[in-house]
What does this fold into?
Amino acid sequence: MGKQKLELTWIGKEKRPKLEPRILLEDPARSYHAAQRVRENDIFDNRLIFGDNLLALKALEAEFTGKVKCVFIDPPYNTGSAFTHYDDGLEHSIWLGLMRDRLEIIRRLLSEDGSLWITIDDNEAHYLKVLCDEVFGRANFVANVLWQKRFAPNSTAQYISDSHDHILLYAKEKARWKRKLLPRDDKHNQGYKNPDNDPRGLWTSGDMSARNSYSAGIYPITSPSGRIISGPPKGMFWRVSFEKFRELDKDGRIWWGKNGDNVPRIKRFLSEVMEGIVPQSIWLHDEVGHTQEAKKEVMAVVPSAEDVFQTPKPERLIRRVLELATSPNDLVLDSFAGSGTTGAVAHKMGRRWIMVELGEHCHTHIIPRLQKVIDGADPGGITGAVNWQGGGGFRYYRLAPSLVVNDRWGNSVINPEYDAAQLAEALCKLEGFSYAPSETRWWQHGHSSERDFIYVTTQNLSAEQLQALSDEVGGEQSLLICCAAFHGVTAARAAERWPNLTLKKIPKMVLARCEWGHDDYSLNVANLPMAASPEPTDAPAVPCRGAKVHGGKAADSRQSGLFQEGEV
It folds into this structure.
């Protein structure tokens, strides 16, 4: 029998949006920076982006592919609240499609040693796990961390009180991702004492016997008091050979008890243990906070946030993620910014950050919260733990409007809101060039290599103008010219006459590439066209909720989330 693989499928899975790579426009009035540098390593080029998060991720792709060290996202949990007029099956399919589209871009943005952390509840956690296996590769799954988000039972729960969320952790390349250790604190060092005043400092002792069979691990020992210990306990073995034991004893690494007649134990010095603690997969509320703590943190900075954010994440939780996944100055991305906790914590920990949010609370809650962080006026959260005193800043961006719009007659034209510089930047992004206008070459708006350049103009170029451009570019370089039109020569003739020039007309050159004028790819179901149902399949399947089963097959033609098995 051939190998089987588990694959998640849903209505509309094959439908993928043709995203327009928008440019980002800074609004200096909403950008915010500290009046002066507080620390030498203060970071000022963080980004807060207002707009649809899928379009924003696409906008970041050209500049940040392979540069993001850690992505933390807290996406909508798909509990049904956003899908009042849709049944469970339909809602589930839409949610999976929207998550897939975002995860694919996130994976490209991650550095080769980067990681993705997703908080999710039981409603979609297991479907999301299989979806992430498809996008990231099952071999790159690292862990499913359980976070205790509530510490008291819900007395009104109909079945079992929900006390945890999942945090799915994936690496871009698991072999290259290296998790860090959690910092040690007084709790971890409580067992270290120094009753014999050893000059090497605090130590604890460990049992010298073990159950693992060791051929050289059975021998008698004589204690300093003269007591003879015939061997390890029955069924046990000494951990080291007699020769190694004598070396340890000579080096003062064996503890015999205060009177020198106890069964020997091996001393382990605090100065020699690991610099931190290996993280575990269960995170309790007393270590990383809980939902009520998170609400208090947000409301302390923005009092009006109580009715906006029902399940924010505590700063201690985000700190734990960033401690394990990043170092100072690494880039952190959160494309579901919510109340802005990820940016606030990353800022206090000296990480660079990018956040994306579409809701109006980007202006009413996130910006005021970040301003207080920068001013050193946010005393809550992890402020005291990291000794945060303010500093740094961020730039506020919004997504540019669609590049192509229809005029009054229904013709596709360049959006008149774009000025010359914005048009050049937009076409650079569409054509895969880096936007970098030259101060000396008027025709050089960007480059794709040291010898390949792009020039954008809304003019109609004549043969004489093209000849002049060709002469300036020279035979060792090439120039892509994006213009409204060219006359006096055909395209085929132009290619022969000026081999160092490539001519394209705007907007015709880009019309078929993107979904122009589509501004919202969010979880607003009313804006999402649904694809047709997939063809029936004879493959064995396990139906998701919302599908009906008869004779071992899902009978509902709208079956929306199936685990299908197929041959490899």
